[in-house]
Amino acid sequence: MPVDILMPALSPTMEEGTLSKWIKNEGDAVKSGDVIAEIETDKATMEVEAVDEGVIGKIVIPAGSEGVKVNSVIAVLLQDGESADAISAPKAAPAANADTPAATTSGDAGGKARESSDEPTSVASEKVPAAPKTEVAADPDIPAGTEMVSMTVREALRDAMAEEMRRDGDVFIMGEEVAEYQGAYKITQGLLQEFGDKRVIDTPITEHGFTGIGVGAAMAGLKPIVEFMTFNFAMQAIDQIVNSAAKTLYMSGGQMGAPIVFRGPSGAAARVGAQHSQCYAAWYSHIPGLKVVMPYTAADAKGLLKAAIRDPNPVIFLENEILYGHSFEVPKLDDFVLPIGKARIHRPGKDATLVSFGIGMTYAVKAVAELEKQGIDVELIDLRTIRPMDLPTVIESVKKTGRLVTVEEGFPQSSVGDFIANRVHREAFDYLDAPVVTIAGKDVPMPYAANLEKLALPNVGEVVEAVKAVCYK
Amino acid sequence: MAPRKTASTSSRKTTAKPARNETIGSNSLTFTKEEELHAYREMLMIRRFEEKAGQLYGMGVIGGFCHLYIGQEAVVVGMQMAQKDGDQVITSYRDHGHMIALGMSARGVMAELTGRRGGLSKGKGGSMHMFSKEKGFYGGHGIVGGQVSLGTGLAFANKYRGNDQVSVTYFGDGAANQGQVYESFNMAALWKLPVVYIIENNRYAMGTSTVRSTAQSNFSKRGEGFGIPGVQVDGMDVRAVKAAAEEAIAHCRAGKGPYILEMLTYRYRGHSMSDPAKYRSKDEVQKMRSEHDPLEQVKARLLEQGWASEDDLKQIDKDVRDIVADSAEFAQNDAEPDVSELYTDILL
Prior knowledge:
heterodimer; B: alpha/beta; about 10% strand
């Protein structure tokens, strides 16, 4: 059967082109790979190669034709032993857009192109299915009489890793100075001695490379913990985190993902300047395929890091250098694991809702105590997980109090608080008695000078004032 | 700063191909009849598949980017002939040939190219992003150089588990200039990871020739600073590829660490379907096709040895074309993914 040679699309957006030149003529033999014609698109002149072998039986579209639609028949190829008589009248173009005429003026086609590129959007907007909702289990009950131990966040993190490494031989930790130096911030203290250098691995100072190696090991089924000395340095590796770790499960249709934890301190420490003082909560929370955890207390740090290591997905675990030395009560249990994706009501209240996470909680806790003295009863929610975010807990609280303030140290534009405000406006607008106020770091790189650094970060006074403002007090 | 030696180096580098004596074993390489026939069929399968993919792209059935492997078939087929089950393969976005060589189904690959539910990634990955746990294929990666660190991580997992599997990590001459490649080389050599780095040097990083983009165009030497052995291989000769692959893989399996194979190869088509390839002459392409084509080389030997007749080869071509035609048919008629797939496979 004669084979139709069609006008090819040669770019993701091409709809038509000019058939500028025939290289082969009627009667010429061609084999696959031979250049048979040249076409011009809006971007370039391209060669058309034959795919099948045969003889050019008929040239349907003469050289010099403009506005030739993609997929229209430009020539007919005869195969072994066929004669030109076998060619029937040229068929209409089996175009992707059935309503597109075979040839039109270019002006027309321009309009058509816009129309058809609009089409999928409108179709899609009618049919986009709702995102599925997942139920997250509540925190496990702590049995009555459980001993509570005072512990720093640093110790809690180390214990979490040690317990999980004892439990599962596929868990290992890699990063700069995690082994012999015992951790740049001493989070991995004692791990090398207990688990050896096969599982506690000092890397060269090459974040991009070792992050990729970690993700590759996770794709092969191991469960790496990649420690960044600080998340500022993970900027060198963000491609591997976002493009490889977060997206592989989706791109593989569910065949393989990356069970990996990226952890380390994020946010401002003290007087370390602009390049070392940045909160990454909002950055990573933007990415589907990642979970983002940012604990405040030692108990949450321990329970959530254990959960992160067991999680089959890539988890960004954002710690804070200042919080490392803070002590909290931690239940003394053999296996204390907390659910990722569940906020914790740090203090119930009825007058206003205050939402924070990580080191932001230090301002919030002090502000709540101050407000209590002034007769304002604040409900304080510690998000703990930024993604997937426990919005139901926030929204339920706002429905009760009618007022919302958020606190974080990150930059203000597109902040975590902005996202919460947006969702509360959409889902609880009728319950709000005042506009939502979001408190964040100032919109400046972190200054070094002590007075300026203090100004750049949120402070307790700001939080107190914001809560009073939404309470009209 | 030291003066740059552009004039002298570039004139040296205009030589089309490094001298033969730098490459591994182009002499006295023999394939059995079975090996020649196997290599021929596999390479033909890739070529016909890619030609069909190009055609379907032209029809608008395949969208987005589409990077064809035509011209480079001997590399992946020769490598595959030296690997064993359990070895892992990872590459860039020019990945159709690798998947076909690994035995991933033509239907599954083609249906992924058309974005249909029967595609290997359910239509959610596309030309550049397919995977197969079963076949040990760890993707199709779209960020130039990204797969090099990932492939090193696969090797890390092998070493950690103490198995004798090898990670076969492909990248191009363009990726060979990326920083993370050298970070990975360093760690692979430091930790003696079983990874064969295959630099598919097809002479052009998109439209920029190696002459214009690289200070050391002998990519086999790129591991010297880390003590990683490397050789240049005639990547148009499937026998040379297999011989080099055997050596490199044996080195890795013996626990001696990584190995670099620079495959001197050539892509006949543009970087992607929308590349008019104006940065090189038609004569250059024509010369490679007529004098070095990997399929023609095998075909000539098969005929010369009397191991196959013209009719035999026609029959192989027909069989291959039937498989490809079936895959194209399937890929055009299969349904698009169900809309509910939009939200699946994001998290486990």
